[in-house]
Design brief:
This protein is of the alpha/beta class and 307 residues long. The chain has 2 domains: 185 residues, Rossmann fold (3-Layer(aba) Sandwich), CATH 3.40.50; 73 residues, Helicase, Ruva Protein, domain 3 (Orthogonal Bundle). Helices cover 51% and strands 8% of the residues. The protein is built from 12 helices and 5 strands. Helix 6 links the parallel strand 3 and strand 4. The chain is globular. The termini are far apart.
Length: 307
């Protein structure tokens, strides 16, 4: 049986424990940086994956994360931030972790092999969903079982693994290979493999959010502003996009019940909140398209008034 790349020994790890602390840290840093480069080759696959995610969420399906161990930590970090950052409804995000979130407190390995638990957890998956199945080795039984069940139900599957030829890719609509080099501490995939997974999740979910209209000129225009810092940030976005004073932007935000997009449209001339909301619906939630429609409508009205 051939050795998995994620279990191989690093070529520069010999005598690691005898070196000076600064030398050890330099090698660890180099290992992380080399691992991060693995996402470059995965960009085409990540682009395809983001399209599947966006399509599922746009049609009312769920984004389902399935993972175990260290990969589960990376998945959880991504999943938990999406509602606040991009306003994605919590009920459209499901997080399936081997042993549940409570298992992450002590990271027991046994649940990774529990296919019965995987079948039970997979009950939440429906045909309209997109499943992000992630496993550094690409052979974790819990994740493989969920991918198999999801495939049988017609859900779309994005498989993310760090080993070429991973079994997990067999069930995937899109396979994302993050071919990271051997870990400085052999098999410790929380390091390089985890770093590459974290980057891939960041890239994938951000691109999906952009496709859904949640980002405009680098602003997270669909954020949930539920504290003072975020309310200030939201007002700043409205002010910059609409080209108005910060105080005026804050006033429009209050009228828009905290919605950056609606506040921008009101500041740009939409007659009321309902009208702004209707324009957004027609524009598929894309603020740029909504502003263009509003401008075109105003131009048409002005021309008619001159006749």
């Amino acid at each position: 049986m051939s050795q998995k790349a994620t279990e191989a020994k690093h070529g520069k790890a010999e005598g690691l424990d005898t070196r000076a602390p600064a030398d050890i840290l330099a090698l660890l840093a180099s290992g992380q940086q080399d691992a991060a480069k693995a996402v470059d080759a995965a960009i085409p696959a990540l682009s395809d994956a983001a399209e599947l995610v966006a399509m599922a969420l746009r049609k009312g399906g769920k984004l389902v994360y399935a993972a175990a161990g260290s990969s589960g930590l990376m998945a959880m970090a991504d999943a938990l931030e999406l509602p606040g950052t991009y306003g994605i409804a919590r009920e459209q995000i499901a997080l399936l972790l081997a042993g549940g979130i409570s298992n992450l407190a002590d990271m027991q390995g046994t649940p990774e092999d529990d296919v019965v638990l995987a079948a039970k957890d997979a009950e939440v998956i429906a045909e309209a969903d997109c499943v992000l199945a992630v496993s550094a080795s690409g052979s974790t039984p819990y994740v493989l079982k969920i991918a198999e069940i999801a495939r049988g139900r017609g859900a779309k599957i994005v498989a993310i693994a760090n080993n070429p030829g991973a079994r997990l890719f067999d069930a995937a609509d899109v396979s994302v290979l993050l071919q990271t080099p051997p870990e400085v501490v052999a098999g410790s995939t929380r390091m390089g493999a985890g770093t590459a997974q974290k980057l891939a999740f960041n890239m994938l979910s951000t691109l999906a959010a952009i496709k859904l209209g949640h980002v405009h000129d680098g602003h997270m225009v669909n954020l949930r502003a539920d504290n003072d810092k975020l309310r200030t940030r939201a007002a700043g976005m409205v002010a910059e996009i609409a080209g108005i004073a910060l105080d005026d932007a804050a006033d429009w935000l209050k009228i828009a019940d905290g919605s950056v997009k609606i506040a921008v449209l009101l500041a740009a001339g939409a007659s009321d909140v309902d009208t702004a909301r209707e324009i957004l619906i027609r524009s598929d939630q894309m603020l740029r398209k909504a502003l263009a429609e509003l401008k075109m409508t105003e131009t048409t009205v002005k021309r008619a008034a001159k006749r």
